[in-house]
Design brief:
Length: 323
């Protein structure tokens, strides 16, 4: 029992660190990029922490103590073993070198059956495709009215509007993302948390958020900064809104976990392709290396995840998760 508690603390700690450090940039990356010029990092971190606390507490209240928003319904609680802590440890390592790895595959796969893993992969692949197509169509339409790469906003009223809109859309996206990805941390905890445990979770998440804002997103932030116009309030607002709508759709679709990383990369892929289609000065030969690099990193992360799954399911504890 003592070892199980130690593994639980290590797994939860590493999972929280890696999830907030890796996946949170999908939602907070454009927020950081577009706001850090105007606000101190601790002001932005405080806003993100407040939104996080409200979202987590609401989920805890609505789902009877389950902060995962029902994402773990198909993955029952298990006593944490040493191999459960391996996955977030590897994820943390990959995060530090800037690889956008799917936390869902890398963490939840150590707990899920092979059947559930296949369903998560299928839902994530569909999410990537839908996000790319939806983003492409949206930005084709948007490009008819504005040029995100070259058009600059000079009207003071419009500047004020877009800057304020970033706050609202970032909060919406951040909350929607948490409803998906808190499951990747909560999987190490009992499905019903008491108030002291809930408080510990929120305090830990807050510390992690302040650290991420302090280092301005870390190496993984480059995935966001490489894309066209992500430092601008208008582009950040549009990205946040479309990404949040896609995530909300999949949240309401079913309770099966999915990779928000794949959805995010798919959205940025569709956006870049649309901008290059409508902008003669932004040629496809510049776009494909950019989106291809992200895709290769994503596939590499998936390969690592699959390797861990195979090792756990067929070598360490064979035949335990086949059903």
């Amino acid at each position: 029992m003592e070892l199980t508690l130690i593994y639980t603390v290590i797994g939860f700690g590493l999972a929280g660190w890696s999830v907030i450090g890796n996946d949170s940039i999908q939602t907070l990356g454009t927020f950081i990029a577009s706001k850090e010029k105007w606000f101190k990092w601790y002001t932005l971190a405080s806003a993100a922490s407040a939104a996080m606390a409200v979202t987590v507490v609401y989920g805890w209240w609505k789902y009877g103590g389950d902060i995962s928003y029902g994402r773990l319904t198909r993955i029952p609680y298990q006593e944490i073993q040493w191999y459960h802590a391996v996955a977030p440890g590897i994820l943390l390592l990959l995060t530090r070198i800037g690889i956008p790895v799917s936390t869902t595959f890398l963490v939840l796969s150590a707990f899920a059956s092979t059947v559930i893993l296949e369903k998560m992969l299928m839902k994530s692949v569909v999410g990537y495709g839908i996000a790319a197509i939806f983003a492409y169509i949206c930005w084709i339409v948007i490009s008819k009215f504005i040029n995100e790469k070259f058009d600059e906003i000079t009207d003071k009223w419009k500047i004020s509007f877009w800057r304020n809109a970033v706050w609202v859309t970032s909060a919406f996206l951040w909350a929607t993302w948490l409803m998906h990805d808190v499951a990747n941390i909560a999987v190490y905890l009992p499905r019903q948390l008491n108030i002291p445990t809930l408080a510990i979770v929120i305090i830990y998440f807050t510390i992690l958020l302040f650290y991420i804002f302090y280092i301005h997103g870390g190496p993984i932030q480059k995935v966001v900064l490489d894309k066209t116009g992500t430092r601008y309030a208008r582009s950040a607002t549009i990205i946040n809104t479309i990404y949040a709508l896609v995530l909300y759709y999949f949240k309401e679709l079913n309770d099966l976990p999915m990779s928000t990383t794949w959805v995010f990369v798919g959205l940025l892929c569709g956006r870049e392709l649309a901008i290059s289609t409508m902008n003669k000065d932004y040629k496809l030969k510049y776009v494909f290396p950019l989106i291809g690099k992200d895709f290769i990193k994503m596939i590499f992360g998936l390969s690592v995840s699959v390797g861990i799954v195979l090792a756990i399911h067929y070598i360490i504890i064979p035949n335990q998760f086949l059903l």
